[in-house]
UniProtKB/TrEMBL annotation:
Protein name per Swiss-Prot or TrEMBL: Alpha-galactosidase
Residue ranges occupied by any Glycosyl hydrolase family 98 putative carbohydrate-binding module domain in the UniProt entry: 495-640
Domain of life the protein comes from: Bacteria
Record EC number: 3.2.1.22
Organism: [Actinomadura] parvosata subsp. kistnae
Lineage of origin: Bacteria, Bacillati, Actinomycetota, Actinomycetes, Streptosporangiales
GO molecular function: alpha-galactosidase activity
Signal peptide: 1-26
Pfam families named in the record: Melibiase_2, Melibiase_C, NPCBM, NPCBM_assoc
Length: 641
């Protein structure tokens, strides 16, 4: 994967270097840059200089701010003034600001509205707002992230958290003046900053409702995006909704998922602040000038949902000059077609691939799992090929998020479909080919070529597919320069009779802490650290140990009739913990234990699963929290024909 520095040399040579705008001017578009948050208290003057060196090639795209997130302060003030930690920043902040400015960048620091900094020790700015603001301005600081830590709530009798925040944030904003970007980082949802942040002069305000940074995971990222969308009406030019940092390059998501975050953040006119070291952030995600232009569009609009069908979302964002940005987002675990109506003839540019097509009205595409496609659409009669929807293995029903399933050596079917969606011209010589993993057999059961495809028409090919061995695989289909991929699960059918589930392979499993354990309790976070399954003094030799919430899926192929187990909270957490135990057969819940706690004996659960292709064992966290929820599926068995 290319680094930012390499990509900048390759892709940005034609971009003119732009003079640094003032902070007031920069606030007209969402801030972009890098934060030291991942470094924690290992941050240093040297690491910040290295980050500035790596970020500088992207300054022409808008990446301006090098932000030190905590751990830069000395433990005590010097003569009443803020002072940097002498070990971490021996040269001082003013010299560091000069170095950053010399790279064509700007420097940011974190401060706290309370009595202490959030991390690393050091004083907060409570009752020292004017002096601290003057100090950081004198150092040449261009950006202040104002945190919400060590708040002296006792000093505000009769006031709620929102009222306290509204008393503490404006004084720092006013003291900093308009030439310093003010990032209001009161991420405790009870302060509801979206209701008053703009009036308080905040350049950005956090939109999540729990007091911790974003995790580098797809599920967390989507949760924060959904929360951010709820604040869309409050955001606008000069005061931006901030759903937190860009994760690309940290390693917890796939490149597709990182591209999805970047797309969704751009549609929300969100700050684009990198958390990974700039040299590690993939240029294929963070250095696309056309996607960045959507985020930085002068109109400053926050994109809104046109429609949402649970897993599948369409967002639109008006752009300066009359164009629109449209994003098609597939939140589910399986590729699916997502579509929208544009209303009349349009030019359609895919901002990630660069492809330009045209449509008389509809925009549709098969969107891979966890992916978001981004388009710039404009009213135009430009001669361009029609929008084509090329899909492989379409879902069987709305919300179907499982891959198609085959059994080893048993021939099944996959379907591909080409649709002339744009209908601005006839497609000719449409041919679809297949490429499968080694050892597979894939043959077209219906013709794989047609001489023409008129507007609105579809061409469907049915393929006979035989896979040799269990696992999860991809079968790739091609039409011209387009590809569509079917993700296929190959799983063995269960044998007849009664079998312990811990002796079988599951198709997927999720667990709150560590892996699901076979024949032991969950233990702690490491694999294999469980103890004998024990519920209220009764020990079980077989079963599954989890920490709720947990979800374990088995392929049953329609051949099984019942699941049974003893449900309970493991004795290793004492009387603590609570969970509910469920069995799901395909899309419906067929059994529920009721709420069980650590002070209760095991409860037998029997679930009918006749005809189900997939069965899931689910442990919920009991409706409170996940602490101590060590949920045992003891003596868990399945009966098959």
């Amino acid at each position: 994967m290319r680094t930012i520095k390499a990509a900048a040399a390759a892709a940005l040579l034609s971009l003119p270097f732009l003079p640094l705008p003032s902070a007031a001017e920069a606030a007209t578009t969402p801030p972009m840059g890098w934060s030291s948050r991942s470094l924690g208290c290992s941050v240093s003057e040297q690491s910040v200089r290295q980050a500035a060196d790596a970020l500088a090639p992207l300054a022409p795209l808008g990446y301006r701010y090098v932000i030190i997130d905590d751990c830069w302060l000395a433990a005590q003030r010097a003569g009443g003034a803020l002072a940097p930690d002498a070990a971490r920043f021996p040269g001082g902040i003013a010299a560091l600001a000069g170095y950053v400015h010399g790279k064509g960048l700007k420097l940011g620091l974190s401060l706290s509205a309370g009595t202490k900094a959030c991390s690393g020790g050091g004083p907060g700015s409570y009752k020292s707002e004017a002096a601290d603001a003057a100090q950081v301005r004198a150092w040449g600081v261009d950006y202040v992230k104002y945190d919400w830590c060590s708040i002296p709530t006792a000093d505000f009798p009769g006031k709620n958290v929102q009222q306290i925040a509204q008393a503490l944030y404006p004084p720092m904003r006013q003291a900093l003046g308009p030439d310093v970007v003010f990032a209001m980082n009161n991420e405790d949802g009870s302060t509801v900053p979206w209701l008053w942040g703009k009036d308080a002069g905040a350049t950005t305000w956090r939109t999540n409702v729990y007091n911790r940074p974003i995790a580098d995971s797809y599920a967390t990222m989507v949760d924060l995006w959904e929360t951010n969308q709820l604040r869309a009406e409050y955001a606008g030019r000069g005061s931006w909704a901030d759903p937190d940092l860009i994760q690309a390059g940290r390693g917890g998501m796939t490149e597709t998922e990182y591209r999805t975050q970047f797309t969704l953040w751009a549609m929300g006119a969100a700050p684009l602040i990198l958390q990974a070291a700039p040299a590690q952030a993939p240029a294929s995600v963070v250095a696309n000038p056309k996607v960045i232009a959507v985020d930085q569009d002068p109109l400053g609009a926050h994109g809104t949902l046109v429609r949402s069908d649970g897993w599948y979302h369409v967002l639109a964002k008006p752009l300066a000059g009359g164009d629109r940005a449209v994003a098609l987002f597939n939140e589910s675990d399986r590729a699916a077609v997502v579509s929208t109506r544009l209303g009349g003839r349009h030019r359609v540019e895919d901002l990630w691939s660069g492809a330009v097509t045209s449509t008389t009205d509809e925009l549709a595409a098969q969107v891979p799992a966890h992916a978001a496609l981004l388009y710039r659409v404009s009213k135009s009669r430009e001669q361009a090929p029609p929008v084509v929807t090329f899909e492989a293995d379409p879902p069987r029903f709305l919300g179907d998020d499982r891959p198609s399933t085959l059994e080893p050596g048993v021939t099944g079917e996959l379907v591909t479909r080409v649709t002339n969606t744009g209908a601005t011209a006839r497609l000719r010589d449409v041919e679809v080919t297949a490429q499968a993993p080694e050892g597979w057999r894939v043959e077209a059961r219906t013709p794989a070529r047609t001489s023409r495809l008129d507007g609105g028409e579809s061409f469907t090919v049915t393929w006979a597919v035989t896979a040799p061995a269990p696992g999860t695989y991809e079968v790739t289909f091609r039409y011209g320069d387009r590809t569509a991929t079917a993700v296929v699960l190959v799983a063995k059918a269960l044998g007849s009779g009664r079998t312990y589930l811990s002796d079988l392979a599951w198709t997927r499993a999720t667990n709150y802490f560590g892996p699901v354990e076979k024949d032991t309790s969950n233990g702690e976070r490491a694999a294999g650290d469980g103890r004998p399954l024990t519920i209220e003094g009764v020990t079980y030799a077989k079963g599954l140990g989890t920490h709720a919430p947990a979800d374990i899926e088995f392929y049953t192929g329609g051949r099984c009739t019942a699941v049974e187990f003893q449900a309970g909270i493991d004795d290793e957490v004492g009387a603590a913990g609570s969970a509910g135990f469920e069995v799901w057969a395909d899309g419906g819940r067929v059994a529920y234990s009721g709420l069980l706690t650590g002070a209760m004996p095991a409860r037998k659960v029997t679930a009918p699963i006749e005809g189900a292709r997939f069965v899931r064992l689910v442990a919920t966290n009991g409706g409170d929290n996940a602490t101590s929820d060590h949920a045992d599926f003891a003596d868990a068995t399945i009966t098959c024909k």
